[in-house]
Amino acid sequence: MEERGKLKADNIVRLEVKLESVTHTPQSRAQAHRSHRDRSQAKQAKQGGGLFTTIIGLVIIVGLAYLLYGKYQRWQLAQQPVITPVQTVVTQPIDSNPNSYRCDGRIHCGQMNSREEARWFVRNCPGTKMDGNNDGEPCENDSRW
Asked: Per the database record, which ranges form the Excalibur calcium-binding domain (predicted)?
Protein backbone atom coordinates (compact mmCIF):
# COMPACT_ATOMS: atom_id res chain seq x y z
CA MET A 1 0.00 0.00 0.00
CA GLU A 2 1.04 3.47 -0.78
CA GLU A 3 0.34 6.64 1.04
CA ARG A 4 -3.24 7.86 1.07
CA GLY A 5 -4.63 4.34 0.80
CA LYS A 6 -3.89 3.62 -2.88
CA LEU A 7 -2.62 0.28 -4.13
CA LYS A 8 0.92 0.12 -5.44
CA ALA A 9 1.85 -2.11 -8.37
CA ASP A 10 5.03 -3.73 -7.12
CA ASN A 11 6.76 -7.02 -8.01
CA ILE A 12 4.48 -7.80 -10.96
CA VAL A 13 5.42 -10.87 -13.01
CA ARG A 14 3.95 -11.47 -16.44
CA LEU A 15 3.26 -15.10 -16.98
CA GLU A 16 3.36 -15.13 -20.78
CA VAL A 17 6.71 -13.44 -21.22
CA LYS A 18 9.94 -15.16 -20.45
CA LEU A 19 12.87 -13.06 -19.48
CA GLU A 20 15.95 -13.87 -21.45
CA SER A 21 19.21 -12.75 -20.24
CA VAL A 22 21.11 -10.92 -22.90
CA THR A 23 24.74 -11.69 -22.94
CA HIS A 24 26.92 -9.92 -25.42
CA THR A 25 29.90 -11.68 -26.79
CA PRO A 26 32.47 -10.08 -29.06
CA GLN A 27 31.10 -12.10 -31.99
CA SER A 28 27.52 -10.97 -31.40
CA ARG A 29 28.66 -7.36 -31.14
CA ALA A 30 30.65 -7.62 -34.39
CA GLN A 31 27.67 -9.17 -36.16
CA ALA A 32 25.35 -6.42 -34.89
CA HIS A 33 27.86 -3.78 -36.03
CA ARG A 34 28.11 -5.37 -39.52
CA SER A 35 24.34 -5.49 -39.78
CA HIS A 36 24.04 -1.82 -38.79
CA ARG A 37 26.82 -0.84 -41.24
CA ASP A 38 25.18 -2.73 -44.11
CA ARG A 39 21.89 -0.92 -43.48
CA SER A 40 23.68 2.46 -43.38
CA GLN A 41 25.44 1.75 -46.69
CA ALA A 42 22.18 0.70 -48.33
CA LYS A 43 20.54 3.88 -47.08
CA GLN A 44 23.40 6.02 -48.44
CA ALA A 45 23.13 4.31 -51.84
CA LYS A 46 19.44 5.16 -51.96
CA GLN A 47 20.15 8.75 -50.94
CA GLY A 48 22.79 9.13 -53.68
CA GLY A 49 20.21 8.11 -56.25
CA GLY A 50 17.84 10.52 -54.57
CA LEU A 51 20.19 13.43 -55.30
CA PHE A 52 20.31 12.55 -58.99
CA THR A 53 16.54 12.22 -59.09
CA THR A 54 16.17 15.57 -57.32
CA ILE A 55 18.41 17.30 -59.87
CA ILE A 56 16.51 15.77 -62.80
CA GLY A 57 13.22 16.78 -61.19
CA LEU A 58 14.40 20.36 -60.74
CA VAL A 59 15.55 20.55 -64.38
CA ILE A 60 12.14 19.33 -65.52
CA ILE A 61 10.34 21.83 -63.28
CA VAL A 62 12.49 24.73 -64.54
CA GLY A 63 11.90 23.68 -68.16
CA LEU A 64 8.14 23.51 -67.66
CA ALA A 65 8.14 26.87 -65.89
CA TYR A 66 10.04 28.41 -68.83
CA LEU A 67 7.59 26.99 -71.36
CA LEU A 68 4.56 28.08 -69.36
CA TYR A 69 5.97 31.58 -68.93
CA GLY A 70 6.49 31.90 -72.70
CA LYS A 71 2.97 30.70 -73.34
CA TYR A 72 1.62 33.18 -70.78
CA GLN A 73 3.54 36.04 -72.43
CA ARG A 74 2.10 35.16 -75.86
CA TRP A 75 -1.41 34.93 -74.38
CA GLN A 76 -1.07 38.28 -72.64
CA LEU A 77 0.21 39.90 -75.84
CA ALA A 78 -2.81 38.55 -77.71
CA GLN A 79 -5.14 40.01 -75.05
CA GLN A 80 -3.86 43.55 -75.49
CA PRO A 81 -5.87 45.75 -77.83
CA VAL A 82 -4.23 46.75 -81.08
CA ILE A 83 -3.51 50.44 -81.10
CA THR A 84 -3.30 52.05 -84.49
CA PRO A 85 -1.73 55.47 -84.54
CA VAL A 86 -4.06 58.13 -85.78
CA GLN A 87 -2.34 60.71 -87.88
CA THR A 88 -3.86 64.11 -87.73
CA VAL A 89 -2.80 66.80 -90.06
CA VAL A 90 -2.69 70.17 -88.41
CA THR A 91 -2.84 72.94 -90.88
CA GLN A 92 -1.88 76.40 -89.85
CA PRO A 93 -2.88 79.04 -92.25
CA ILE A 94 0.26 80.68 -93.47
CA ASP A 95 -0.37 84.20 -94.43
CA SER A 96 2.11 84.46 -97.25
CA ASN A 97 0.26 87.22 -98.97
CA PRO A 98 2.58 90.24 -98.71
CA ASN A 99 -0.40 92.56 -98.79
CA SER A 100 -1.64 91.25 -95.45
CA TYR A 101 1.41 92.58 -93.56
CA ARG A 102 1.81 96.26 -92.83
CA CYS A 103 4.35 98.26 -90.90
CA ASP A 104 2.55 98.90 -87.65
CA GLY A 105 5.46 99.77 -85.36
CA ARG A 106 6.41 96.26 -84.25
CA ILE A 107 10.20 95.91 -84.16
CA HIS A 108 11.04 92.85 -81.93
CA CYS A 109 10.83 89.08 -82.55
CA GLY A 110 8.46 88.54 -79.63
CA GLN A 111 5.90 90.71 -81.40
CA MET A 112 5.88 88.56 -84.55
CA ASN A 113 3.55 85.61 -85.22
CA SER A 114 5.78 83.73 -87.69
CA ARG A 115 9.25 83.74 -89.14
CA GLU A 116 7.82 84.73 -92.51
CA GLU A 117 6.20 87.78 -90.95
CA ALA A 118 9.51 88.73 -89.30
CA ARG A 119 11.31 88.41 -92.67
CA TRP A 120 8.75 90.70 -94.29
CA PHE A 121 9.16 93.28 -91.49
CA VAL A 122 12.98 93.26 -91.80
CA ARG A 123 12.79 93.74 -95.58
CA ASN A 124 10.01 96.31 -95.68
CA CYS A 125 9.83 98.27 -92.40
CA PRO A 126 12.47 100.69 -91.09
CA GLY A 127 13.98 100.43 -87.56
CA THR A 128 13.37 96.75 -86.84
CA LYS A 129 15.63 95.08 -84.24
CA MET A 130 15.19 91.47 -85.29
CA ASP A 131 18.33 90.81 -87.37
CA GLY A 132 21.25 91.10 -84.96
CA ASN A 133 24.02 90.15 -87.42
CA ASN A 134 22.48 91.81 -90.50
CA ASP A 135 22.43 88.65 -92.60
CA GLY A 136 18.78 89.04 -93.59
CA GLU A 137 17.55 86.15 -91.43
CA PRO A 138 15.51 87.57 -88.50
CA CYS A 139 14.90 85.99 -85.10
CA GLU A 140 17.66 83.38 -85.38
CA ASN A 141 17.66 82.70 -81.63
CA ASP A 142 13.88 82.52 -81.32
CA SER A 143 12.96 78.92 -80.41
CA ARG A 144 9.29 79.28 -81.36
CA TRP A 145 10.03 78.58 -85.01
From this structure: 108-140
